[in-house]
Amino acid sequence: MKPDFDTTLQKHFKAISNRDIEAFKSHLTKSGPLYTIVQNGHAFTTPAETIVIHEEWFKDPNWIWEGSVVHKVVGEDMAMALVKYQYSSKPEDVPVTSWLIYVFQLQDGDWRIVHDQNTALDFGAFARMAGIEIK
Hints:
Layout: H1 5-17, H2 21-25, E1 35-37, E2 43-44, H3 47-59, E3 64-74, E4 78-88, E5 96-107, E6 110-120, H4 123-130
Parallel strand pairs: 1-6
Antiparallel strand pairs: 1-2, 3-4, 4-5, 5-6
């Protein structure tokens, strides 16, 4: 029996919000590439790279991340979720809004992320909050 996709998404959101790297890793593909495209357009291509960037991010106790599903498509062995999220690097910061697309594949009876793409609605605001220099 195929697992419930909505439950998987909520568990993944909880892993992010709780900075739970083990739960986060449990949702990633176990085989093949994993493209994780971050706000500046850089593409990480392996689960290991995605884990490293999230391990570093999860060490920061100050940020706030809140996501909600805007649209989803669930097929037999593939699913996609379009997520809109609010992010603040510190509680006192005004949140910035970004889009996130997750593509999941059914692998060994579990939904696993095979693609993760972020797009800031206002990259300049995101960069300022994240301390990224724009050239």
